[in-house]
Amino acid sequence: AAALGTARRVIAVTGTRGLTRADLVANTAVPAIEVDPADGTVTLGGRVLAAEPVDEVRLSRRYLLS
C-alpha cells in the first residue's frame, strides 16, 4: 500500500473469472452495439461513437507477445 501512495489496505481479488454483466448489480445498462461492415462506424444504443486518430500507440507491435 505504501508503494502505491495510499493508506488503504490492499488485498488480492479472487473468484472474478466467471463474473458477467448480470453480476454487476449497479450496471443495468445493456445498449445495443452495432458495427457497420461497410465503413466501420460503431454505434452504441443508436449513438455514433467516434474517436480522433492518435499519433502514437503505446505497447503496439513492438511489445506484442505471442
Layout of strands and helices, then pairs:
Blueprint: E1 33-35, E2 42-44, E3 47-49
Antiparallel strand pairs: 1-2, 2-3
End-to-end separation in angstroms reads 32 Å
Task: Tell me how many strands there are.
Answer: 3
> Which stretches of 5+ consecutive residues score pLDDT under 50?
none
Largest sheet: 3 strands, antiparallel
* Run of helices and strands: EEE
Shape: extended
Summing up helix and strand content along with how strands pair, one would put the structural category as: mainly beta
- Roughly what percent helix? under 10%
Put simply, the count of helices is 0
Radius of gyration: 19 Å
**In what order do the strands lie side by side in the largest sheet?**
1-2-3
Average pLDDT confidence is 84
Approximately how much beta-strand content do the residues carry?
5-15%
Count of domain modules: 1
Task: Explain the overall architecture.
This protein is mainly beta and 66 residues long. It has one domain. It is 0% helix and 14% strand. The protein has no helices and three strands. Strands 1-2-3 form a three-stranded antiparallel beta sheet, with no helix packed on it. It is extended and about 50 Å long.
Throw out a few tags for this protein.
three-stranded antiparallel beta sheet; 66 residues; 14% strand; mainly beta; 0% helix; single chain
Quick summary of this structure?
This protein is mainly beta and 66 residues long. The protein contains no helices and three strands. The chain has strands spanning 33-35, 42-44, 47-49.
